[in-house]
Amino acid sequence: MADTPESHLAPAAPTPAGEKVATVNVAEEIKNCFLDYSMSVIISRALPDVRDGLKPSQRRILYAMHELGVLPNRKHVKCAKIVGETMGNYHPHGDQAIYPTLVHMAQPWSMREPLVDGQGNFGSIEGDPPASMRYTEARLAPLGALLMEDMDKDTVDFVPNYDDTRTEPSVFPAAFPNLLVNGGTGIAVGMATNIPPHNLGEVIDAVCAQIDNPAITVDQLMRIMPGPDFPTGCMVCGRDGIRQYYETGRGTLKVRGRVHVEETRGGREQIVITEIPFGVNRAALVERIAELVNQKTPGLTDITGIRDESDENTRVVLEIKRDAVPKVIINNLYRLTQLESTFAVNMLAIDRGRPRTLTLKDALACYIEHRREVVLRRTRFELRRAEERAEILEGYLIALANLDEFIRIIRQSRTREEARVKLLAFEWTRAQIEAWHIHLRHEDRLVNGRYGLSEAQVDAILDLRLYQLTGLEVDKVRAEYRSLLDRIRDLQDILAREERVLGIIKTELQEVKKKYASPRRTEILDEEGEMAIEDLVANEPVIITLTHAGLIKRTHLSAYRTQHRGGKGVIGMTTRESPTGGEEPADFIEHLFAASTHDYLMFFTNTGRVYVERVLEIPDMGRTARGRSIANLLELKPEERIAALIRIPSRTDAARRDVTWAQPGYLFFATRRGTVKKTALEEFANVRKGGIIAMGIEEGDSVIDVKWTSGNDEVVLITRQGMSIRFSEEEVRPMGRPAFGVRGIELEPDDEVVAMAVVQPDATLLVVGENGLGKRTSFEEYRTQGRGGKGIITMKTTDRTGPVVGALTVRDHDQIVGITIRGQTIRTYVRGIPVIGRNTQGVKIINLEEGDRVQAIAPVIAESDEEEAVDRALPAGGPGPGRGS
């Protein structure tokens, strides 16, 4: 017979006695085993419980510390002892799993509110490992102990430990919502959790708000609890991700480190990183920045040095080139490094033995229900104890009332048991009980109107010591009994009324908040994607200059020294000489403007278009620098030149939303041919990069000035030949951006409007001629006229004065800067210029060299850090008189 594969198989071994062999499907068996394993990992290892926010390993470590007595008011003990106690009694895993968990709960950069108070080397935010557990020590932190408060009052269930030698709590009472406060991370089988930490005080307020109003909305909760609060500070950009995980349990947050710009003694700037995103290794971040700089990565080539000056606080200094733009470098750091990271929120936790993705309201509701159960169980426990004590005190009072009889019974008894039996047979009438003011709490002990003692009462009476029979001790018993009866009634009232239970939860949480809450560390920014410039650069006064050839720059105000009237001035910038050798230079400063670095600038062109840029976008250069072409800043059309600039101060509301363009007021326009128009500021909220139409302009006309007004101001138009007209802007109805406007003044054929000023009762009108003469005149000398008239004289123009070049609304404390076509500048106080009549020539303000003449004048920011003083001195500080360009 031929061999077959089966003929080579060994015969099946006989089945041992008492054993049963079953045929199983291997795939099905592996599936079931994997499901059992995965459920064990999910429930008993990787995910936190929604009630106390702890994983089993964390809970066992804290409970082992509680059992060891290492409380916040006790001395620290070796971590090795804690790990050994945990491993031997509750958590049968290796110390390499237990010790890192203990360390994590003690690291202030990992936990928003650490649960363990560590002593020794517990690692660092740079990723340094902790010292061995035989060197480090620990004890419970106050909030760690608070999680286990009232655990001995039957508030939670205890379950057998892994070897049935003792019991451990299945959950902690959790006197504060630890899941939301400290968050948690964990990777299970097929699922993971990643819950951000939040501010303790805000979470408690949110819990109390949901108790008061179970139907509270997410919007209302966000006003109380605006978002996560990471232990490393940093900033969360955008509220959409926060709202998303509040509503659904899942969302993505953009987290950025905090960076600012500092100026060194030498006038150079340096970028300083003071906070890094949660979970980012600081050393790795610094190493990555250095690597990108060494690789000459575009955008970071202006970094010349890196210094890590961090101690317990982060401080990484980046030195940059003198002409570098810090904002560009910072944005590239966010783009290329972990200085900006994402935090993917997945609020997954164990709820009633099952994994569940929780919304914010779900998490709050689960905690409230847990604390409600804790308060009820604690109240029942205390009621049980109070009733047991009241029963003993009742027995004492009965014994004291029948002291002689009880002593006789005890003395006549041969043994304790005999005395016990006789006392159990003792009966007392209701009348006798009521005469001694003893509250009868057990009606079932009345038999035929007589009261019998319980076994517990008899045992307590037999254990009485002689000193307890003194009159003072009797009074103490009676006082304790009455107090205990009040306590019992109060506990019963708590159990009977739900509102009292919820009130206790709120009261206890508010006590925790008062004692342990700390200020918010993480800032929530409204705009997602763009960094708020205010967080990068200090708000400082600067001078903006724009030349006829379109060269623009900003220079710090300190570069211009204050001079007296009639001085020679300083060189404000270097201009190019005329290629033909003529007396007039080829380029000269045409506009000079004062602003602050956080502001917006509106650039109005002669053709009636407007462009908007931040002051920080303008190149920062020295006083003598020529500037850079405005073509690099604005997308100007070939025929356009800048006619007016207005500073719009950056504004945010209480929620840090940008409300700059929601400010009240109008933009009031004036053209060379005397046309005027006003348009609401809010119509310029969405200016495109390429600009938009601000005013319709007729052929041959051009915009000469724009002011920011309140809507009911009075304006003065000043012409080149020294004429002026004052009228109320109410005579000009608000118009849309493309409108052409109406007549403001009737001009002579050879005249044109050169300036516009806004009337202020406590100010004067400063008028300056081309030859350096100027004067101030009270607005009272300018009578109000109807719009469209020829006006009256404001300055007597002669060959000595030259034509009028500019006019400003000024006060005595103001300062002005005048600049000539050759680049000479002088800064002077207005109070040095006399106030004289309209029909005069004025006095010398600046000494001019032969062939030079005044080109423009502008106000200057006062050197003050106070916002009120800066707003008063800055042009376009807000709607109202004199707040123009």
TrEMBL record:
E.C. number(s) listed in UniProt: 5.6.2.2
GO BP field: DNA topological change; DNA-templated DNA replication
Domain Topo IIA-type catalytic span(s) in chain numbering: 47-536
SUPFAM superfamilies reported in the protein's UniProt record: GyrA/ParC C-terminal domain-like, Type II DNA topoisomerase
Pfam families xrefs: DNA_gyraseA_C, DNA_topoisoIV
Subcellular location: Cytoplasm
Coiled-coil residue spans: 474-515
A GO cellular-component term linked to this record: DNA topoisomerase type II (double strand cut, ATP-hydrolyzing) complex
GO MF term (any one): DNA negative supercoiling activity
Signal peptide region: none
Active-site annotation: Y135 (o-(5'-phospho-dna)-tyrosine intermediate)
Keywords: ATP-binding, Coiled coil, Cytoplasm, DNA-binding, Isomerase, Nucleotide-binding, Topoisomerase
Reactions that this protein is recorded to catalyse: ATP-dependent breakage, passage and rejoining of double-stranded DNA
Motif annotated as GyrA-box, chain positions: 563-569
Superkingdom of origin: Bacteria
Stretches for region Disordered: 865-885
Annotated family: Belongs to the type II topoisomerase GyrA/ParC subunit family.
Function: A type II topoisomerase that negatively supercoils closed circular double-stranded (ds) DNA in an ATP-dependent manner to modulate DNA topology and maintain chromosomes in an underwound state. Negative supercoiling favors strand separation, and DNA replication, transcription, recombination and repair, all of which involve strand separation. Also able to catalyze the interconversion of other topological isomers of dsDNA rings, including catenanes and knotted rings. Type II topoisomerases break and join 2 DNA strands simultaneously in an ATP-dependent manner.
Subunit structure: Heterotetramer, composed of two GyrA and two GyrB chains. In the heterotetramer, GyrA contains the active site tyrosine that forms a transient covalent intermediate with DNA, while GyrB binds cofactors and catalyzes ATP hydrolysis.
Note: Few gyrases are as efficient as E.coli at forming negative supercoils. Not all organisms have 2 type II topoisomerases; in organisms with a single type II topoisomerase this enzyme also has to decatenate newly replicated chromosomes.
Protein name: DNA gyrase subunit A
Organism (species): Limisphaera ngatamarikiensis
Gene designation: gyrA
